[in-house]
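I hope you will forgive my troubling you with a question about protein structure. Could you please explain, in whatever detail you think fit, how the structure tokens follow from the sequence? Thank you for your consideration; the sequence and its tokens are set out here.
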Amino acid sequence: MIRKKDGFQGEQAVVLPPAIVELEEQDDFCQGLFITDIGYYPKAEHHHRIREKGVGQYVLIYCVDGSGFYVVDGKRHEVKKNQYFILPIGKPHEYGSTEGHFWTVYWLHFCGKAAHVFAEGAATPQTINVTMQSRISERINIFDEILTTLHFGDSIEDLRYASSLLSHFLASMRYLGQFRRAKASAEKDIVEQAIHYMRENIENRITMAEVLRYVGYSQSHFSTVFKKKTGMSPLSYFNRLKVEHACKLLKTTDLKVNMICYKVGIEDPLYFSRLFSKVMGMSPTDYRLKERQ
């Protein structure tokens, strides 16, 4: 049986050294809530980890695709797409992707005087389904900003900023209703609903059947209405959204092109490059060079 702790294609991770963690623990601001480890594993197959003595931080794992499991207090829990859980401090545990499958996960270790507030109620799988107010893409953007901040800086200002973002990220899950209500809006038409669903699933491969189930319309009627309003088919529009998101990542991050593929739900770098070139008229590498001149 193949089992891996890490080493997945397209993964990102930052593990803060003990000296930086000690700085966080002693800082008046950071000591309330801070990160020690953070990462992103896309399409992670055979992912498996056992900690017989637990760890000194809460461990959050947010599954956005695929499936997995975890064991704590002798009980096994199954985890599906759009679910997260938080493992308690100091307790033996085990977790990983479902045997024969993969999962895409955002994970972090956090602690601090206020950490228990955000961990409350998340020992069992918590579901965050796509709705018109779900804001999943915004939550992921917050996570990515934390990861980028800690990857490029370790000054006290960087650490305080990361702690501030962490509070917002965890609050978006712990106080899900409030997070969604803050952006609640009037009911949108079916095209806006479909585009929202596409944006919320920008990292995933979704089918037209899934979009149709979400908006509740037949394919013929929906496609006609969608093309009349946007000028393109739903699939073409979704691909354009993926390319737009890739453009943002190419401009604002140093992620390699084969990593950006996963962030837009495309596993084949060659197909991604062809799609990007078709939409933008240049390769992803040329686009990055042009934007940074």
